[in-house]
Design brief:
- The complex is a heterodimer of chains A (294) and B (253).
- Chain A has 294 residues and is α/β, with parallel strands linked by helices.
- Chain A is built from eleven helices and ten strands.
- Chain A has a single domain, classed as P-loop containing nucleotide triphosphate hydrolases (Rossmann fold, 3-Layer(aba) Sandwich), CATH 3.40.50.
- Helices cover 37% and strands 22% of the residues of chain A.
- The longest helix of chain A is centred in the middle third of the chain and has 18 residues.
- The termini of chain A are far apart.
- Chain B is mainly α and 253 residues long.
- Chain B has one domain.
- The longest helix of chain B has 33 residues.
- The chains are: A alpha/beta (294), B mainly alpha (253).
- The interface between A and B is medium-sized, with 34 and 27 residues.
Chain lengths: 294, 253
């Protein structure tokens, strides 16, 4: 397994305040790595350090084998970014925005136009290519910014809270878009978020950070169960009366059952089902649309 | 150089309001209309003498460059595009000089259009020296061409260099615009009122000596010396600005 990002004792201080404290992480190539933490935990600082936009106070890091202190420009050449702000020029059109960043990345003229077209088609904005970005909704802007991040086929993608501030259907759509593009293009993704559900659904590995200190790191399910391995059984159509034999069967087979509860669909899942979003999980029989009842 | 031109191209598109319509071009047409048609037609003799267009050549870039350069970094910061731009592979100098190149190039072209429009207006309208009466096209004295060609670049670069210092340190566009008013006033009032006022404070003998020296010199040489000194000052300011332009400082600020 190769490593896309490795940090060793990475530390950054601002005027005596430690924003990031001795961070040690490894991000495997090809994975989607979630960097979780509340606001002000040091997530954005970490991305800025890894991009060479800030100098570490101590410690170091390599990104795609390049040292952040010695070859920051080389790093910026090979990565794509979607930072806290979408970073799009509102006075320019969608096409002009992508064209500018494609020129920055030194794509050839032919490659530029074909790549821009294919990405705009993929995110459903080809028809709006000549509209100024100022006229776009926040979700459309985020999709366009995501396309921009993929434009030059980077080996690694930094996404800083890509779904922050988006409504649920848009966030779900963007998440889907992200996973599909990342898997299709074989990109390593470093994703910061404070949305745990998002991390759980999208990430292969996660790290949890608070006040600049790493608290835990591993696969989402391991972090969720505090390092203990667990077995999750989802039984559709299980009514209260039928759950007891099911649990008994599990115990008899040697499983240590610590929790068994009847779970309906999550509020998010039901919300999406009510809105009729096309990519939501199947609607349970219990979730009744308002119009069905009327 | 290629990166610089890419940045400059994007800036120019933003300046002339690409994607947003024709509001940007309307502003340029207004400038050309007022300075290139209205003034020459209402003060034809003063324009033909050359003093007024030479002064305008130095002043107009201040008005054209000032607002755009104030917006260059402060605007990107306020609109949340600066960090994404800094996260690209673009070298610091390409970003810094690309923005300056764009605003100065834009101002230079508009200034040149004003000169050409005024020349056309003076030739196509009445007066003994009109093309129809004399059968010769009127053209400005050579010092006017020097002032328009080089002077407008020098004054544009001066305000651009000062403006980037301000823009790099301003958190908002409004703050940058307000701060820009000070150098703009100093340069405009200093050039039109301050220097003549200071000159009048000199002893009469010195004044006479300076004036006779200037009269003895060719007007082109005088303008060239002035513009040369201004360009040298610009180079120093720009070099200083390029040294101060650092990604980590912009991000930590």
């Amino acid at each position: 397994m190769t490593t896309a990002i490795r940090t060793e004792g990475l530390t950054r201080m601002f005027n005596g305040v430690t924003a990031l404290d001795q961070l040690d992480i490894e991000v495997p190539t090809g994975s989607i790595f979630g960097f979780l933490g509340p606001n002000g935990a040091g997530k954005t600082t970490t991305i800025r350090l890894l991009l060479g936009l800030l100098e570490p106070s101590s410690g170091g890091a390599t990104v795609l084998g390049r040292d952040v202190r010695k070859d920051a420009q080389g790093i910026r050449e090979s990565v794509g970014v979607l930072l806290e702000n979408d970073g799009l020029y509102e006075r320019l059109t969608a096409y002009q925005n992508l064209d500018f960043f494609a020129r920055v990345a030194r794509l050839s003229s032919g490659e530029r136009s074909s790549r821009i077209q294919s990405l705009l088609e993929e995110i459903g904005l080809w028809e709006r290519r000549d509209d100024p970005v100022a006229d776009f909704s926040r979700g459309m802007k985020q999709k366009l910014a995501l396309a921009r991040a993929f434009l030059h086929r980077p080996a690694l993608l930094f996404l800083d809270e890509p779904t922050a501030g988006l409504d649920t259907p848009t966030a779900v759509g963007l998440r889907r878009e992200l996973v599909s593009l990342a898997r299709e293009e074989g990109v390593t993704v470093f994703l910061t978020t404070h949305n745990l559900l998002e991390a759980e659904r999208v990430c292969d590995r996660v790290a949890v950070i608070r006040q600049g200190r790493l608290l835990a790191e591993g696969p989402p399910e391991a972090i969720r169960s505090g390092g203990r391995r667990s077995l999750e059984v989802t039984a559709s159509g299980a009514e209260d009366a039928k759950t007891a034999p099911l649990v008994r069967a599990l115990v008899e087979s040697g499983a240590e059952v610590s929790e068994a509860r009847i779970r309906g669909e999550s509020l998010e899942e039901n919300f999406l089902a009510l809105l009729g979003d096309d990519g939501t999980p199947e609607r349970s029989e219990g979730a009744v649309r308002r119009e069905d009842r009327e | 150089m290629r990166d610089l031109l890419v940045v400059a191209g994007k800036e120019l598109r933003e300046i002339v309001g690409a994607g947003g319509g024709r509001r940007g071009l309307f502003r340029e047409i207004m400038f050309v209309g007022i300075f290139g048609l209205f003034f020459p037609l209402t003060q034809a003799e003063a324009w033909r003498a050359g003093g007024v267009p030479a002064t305008f050549a130095l002043m107009i870039p201040l008005f054209l460059v000032g607002p755009h350069v104030a917006d260059s970094f402060a605007g990107e910061r306020e609109r949340g595009t600066l960090e994404t731009l800094l996260a690209t592979r673009l070298p610091d100098r390409s970003i810094y000089f690309g923005k300056i190149f764009a605003v100065c190039g834009y101002a230079w072209v508009v200034t040149l259009l004003i000169l050409l429009a005024s020349l056309l207006a003076l030739n196509l309208t009445g007066g003994e020296r009109s093309a129809a009466a004399a059968r010769v096209w009127f053209t400005y004295p050579s010092f006017v061409w020097v002032a328009w060609g080089l002077g407008s670049i020098a004054s544009g670069l001066l305000i651009a260099a000062i403006g980037t210092f301000i823009s790099l340190r301003s958190k908002t566009v409004r703050g940058a615009h307000q701060a820009m008013m000070i150098p703009m006033f100093v340069l405009i009032l200093g050039g039109t009122i301050g220097i003549p006022a200071l000159f009048r404070q000199l002893p009469p003998a010195t004044r006479t000596a300076v004036l006779s020296q200037l009269e003895a010199m060719d007007a082109v040489v005088v303008v060239l010396w002035g513009v040369g000194a201004l360009l040298l000052f610009d180079v120093v300011l720009l070099a200083l600005g390029a040294r101060l332009f650092r990604r980590d400082r912009l991000i930590s600020d």
